[in-house]
Amino acid sequence: MTRRTPLEITADSLLHEIGIMRAEVARLEAAAAQEVAQVRERWEEKSRPWRAQKERLERRLMELMKAERQAFFAAADKVTLPHGVLLHGWRESVVKARGVLEKLVALGWEEAIIRTPQVHWEVLEGWPEEKLFACGTRKQRKEFFGFEVTMDPTNAGGAGAAAGPPASDGPLDEAEMPPVRREF
Known about the structure:
The protein is an alpha+beta fold. It is built from 5 helices and 6 strands, in the order H-H-E-E-H-E-E-H-H-E-E. The radius of gyration is 29 Å and the shape is flat.
């Protein structure tokens, strides 16, 4: 066995301690990650009914705006209400026509092709009409709806906040409505 110098002994001792510290840090980080996952799972479970109710309410609002578009948006595309804003408008979007992929390949317009192969529709959204026509599609006006909730999220519950999401699809009072901002 080769005799080590005092310098090598010191360095080796430091390496040994660093190894111990690394193992302990890894153990602690793994334990923390496990706790975070458990906490996330618990809160995910608690928030699931609230998210489901929020999605139901958003669908109801969108259905109401679509069904009553004339009543809401005859005068303007933006209706300001005490708890938010209703939005309506039109935007251009590319029609996802059949045969576009084959024409894109034949024309050599590779930037619009996702190599799975499929059409990269987001790229086509920015193309001019002539280029869209050449590959067999076009733009059309599409109606859209949106809304913004202006309720202060720090005061969403107030003193009489509900202990859980409402069980029915009936009207909610202000204290039961979680804050939402969404655009479609």
